[in-house]
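User: quick one, sequence for these tokens?
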């Protein structure tokens, strides 16, 4: 398993619209077909956000349900791990951020381990009360948290919740690099994030992505350091400078090529379950 790298695809996110890239999947039908295509290309985990009918981020349990049902109905052989966001709409309530997890019981859900300014325009609030409640609920519902850390302070916060029993070891982190107001995306910072995690939460697994110009550096760095990687249009609508991505599959295929060229192997969903300690 030490040679295996997990590819997570983040298909949609809450922000990019068709104006930014016409290939971003937005509807349950588009997202479910995209997840299937990315699974065939080597993605073991799909991190999903939903959009309302105007293309805005929504935590609508109906949209999550419809997407998951379409995937199961049209592609029953697709055994990809589903990781549903809890942060798809800055105006959602603490309740609507979790109800889809309670109902659908995905294998994973995102857990944003602190608050921050968001895109220089709003507040991304993860109140301590909310984090305590969400951590306990996810344990009860059998949903493994993917701990999104936008800076090293969020890793320290996860260590605190681990000690308090709100989170349970082994933790799995997603280092979100190069987001506005988060830690800038660079190799030096990636090494620092990983070392901070090893020190504060030993035995954890980790994955990472870089937005914008740091995307390649972070992807190749993660492969070299033995971490796991996330790609997709939630984080990048450009495939390369001046070139819009044609699809999420294009990102997954490049990640799979990079992993193999390096001499590592792309983890299947079942191998990812073993690495992440998920029960099927
Ligand atoms: Zn997300």
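Assistant:
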């Amino acid at each position: 398993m030490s040679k295996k790298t997990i590819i997570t695809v983040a298909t949609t996110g809450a922000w990019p619209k068709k104006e930014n890239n016409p290939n971003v999947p937005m509807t349950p039908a588009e997202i479910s077909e995209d997840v299937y295509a990315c699974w065939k290309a080597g993605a073991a985990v799909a991190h999903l956000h939903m959009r309302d009918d105007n293309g805005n981020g929504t935590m609508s349990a109906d949209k999550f349900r419809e997407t998951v049902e379409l995937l199961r109905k049209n592609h029953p052989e697709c055994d990809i791990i589903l990781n549903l966001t809890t942060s798809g709409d800055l105006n959602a309530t603490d309740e609507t951020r979790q109800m889809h997890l309670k109902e659908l019981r995905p294998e994973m859900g995102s857990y944003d381990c602190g608050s921050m300014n968001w895109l220089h325009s709003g507040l991304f609030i993860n109140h301590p009360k909310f984090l305590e409640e969400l951590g306990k609920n996810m344990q009860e519902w059998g949903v493994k948290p993917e701990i999104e850390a936008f800076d090293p302070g969020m890793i320290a916060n996860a260590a605190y919740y681990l000690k308090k029993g709100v989170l349970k070891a082994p933790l799995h982190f997603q280092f979100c690099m190069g987001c506005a107001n988060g830690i800038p995306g660079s190799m030096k910072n990636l090494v620092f994030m990983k070392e901070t995690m090893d020190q504060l939460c030993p035995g954890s697994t980790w994955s990472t992505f870089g937005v914008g110009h740091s995307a390649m550096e972070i992807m190749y760095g993660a492969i070299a350091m033995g971490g796991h990687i996330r790609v997709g249009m939630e984080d990048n609508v450009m495939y390369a400078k001046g070139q819009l991505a044609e699809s999420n599959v294009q990102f997954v295929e490049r990640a799979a090529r990079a992993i193999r060229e390096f001499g590592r192997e792309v983890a299947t969903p079942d191998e990812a379950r073993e690495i992440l300690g998920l029960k099927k």
